[in-house]
Design brief:
By secondary structure, this protein is mainly α. It is built from six helices and no strands.
Amino acid sequence: MDILRLIYAVILIFLVPGYTLVQAMFPRKGEFDLEFDWLYRLAFSMALSIGIVIFNGFFLNELSRTFGFYPNGVGMMQEPYISISLWSISGILFVIGWYRGAYPLLGIIHPALYREAPPYTPSVEKMKNKALKELEELAAERAKIKRLIKEYRIKERSSSRSMRKYYQTKKEEATHRLEEIDLRMKELEEKVESGDFDGVQE
């Protein structure tokens, strides 16, 4: 039972309030990051949850002082009141998030619960950063393939007839991949210069 209570406390204090707040503020997927949106949401959820819990504690303490409500002589800073207030805050934020389309999967429960947020359109700056990152990865792969082609040429000249054919095939495959990379890099470079990022993978 102690373990279950600990798990319940961790989820309530470090996740639920902040997560519902993040979903209410940013209902569309991809608003934080094109690849690791879920990771950013988790990190912000934990940080915001702590903040909500702290302010909720101040609020409960102020209520106790204002109305002279001191059950058990310690005011409202007790588990039942903390749980009720945090779940209430989370419930309100959940409804706001649902209204803004943060929980489309609720449509599985009932079609009337389905609400979808407008699709997220990444900013030009984010798409530019995405393209530049892909260019860096392609440049690294290009340098590696050029080294491999050079090695295959050397081994092709110094190997037996059977192995020579093998290295020739590997060289042709690497050369084909190099051509693909060159075409993709040229395409991305043109997009970065023009600012037109249609076709850049999200």
